[in-house]
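dumping these here so i dont lose them again. two proteins, back to back, each one seq then C-alpha cells. dont judge the mess
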Amino acid sequence: QALQKEFEEFIAKFRAALKADDAVAVAGLSQLPFQEDKAVHDAAQFRAKIYRSNFKAPDRACLQRKKAAYDRDEAKNDNYYIICSERIFIFTKTPAGFLLTDIGVND
C-alpha cells in the first residue's frame, strides 16, 4: 500500500516531466548512469542518447495514459512497468526512491 502510494507520487512527477517534454527532469527521475552505461551518466547524455529515441510524442502520450503493472523480480526488487508498443519502461524502487531503471524490448 505504502509502496503503491510512493510509486503514484513518483509517476505523477515523471508524467509531468513528459508532458512538458523536459528531458532534464526525466533524467533526474532516472537511474544514472542509465542501464549502467558510463556513456550515459548525466542529463545531457541522457537527453542525447536515451530521451530523443525513446520518448517521442507517441511514447510520451502512452506513458501518460497507460496504467503501470507491478512485478517483483528475482533479486526481490519492487518494479512497476508500462508497455508502449515495442518498448517496456521499468521503474524500480531504489534507496533514492523510484527511478526509471530500464527501457527494454517488449517481447
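---- next one ----
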Amino acid sequence: RYALAGDYVATKSFGGATVWNTLTWTATAPGSTSLAIASRVYVDTSTGWTEWITHTTSPATLTHPDGEAIQVKAAFTSAGVNTPELDAFEVTYEESVYLYLPVMLKN
C-alpha cells in the first residue's frame, strides 16, 4: 500500500534578482491518484515568500515577481493502491545582471 498523501518541495536559491519564465514537468497519475504542482518565490528579506500558485498544465508560464529563490512543490494523493509519479521538472529563468559603471565628470 502507498501513503494517502505527501509533498515534495525543491528549493533553488540564486542570491540575486532572477526573472522566472516557465515551469515544465512530466508525470504519471494513474486512476485514484492526483499530482498537483505549485511554485512560489522568495522576493527579498522585506517581502519574504509569495503565495503558492498551483499550475494545471505543463509548460506553465510563471507570473511570480523577480526573486532570489524559487520553490516547486509536488503534492501527491492516492487511494493507497497506486501512486502518482513525478518524472522530472524544469524551471527556466534569466538572472538579472547589474552593471555599475564609474561616473566620469568633465570640468
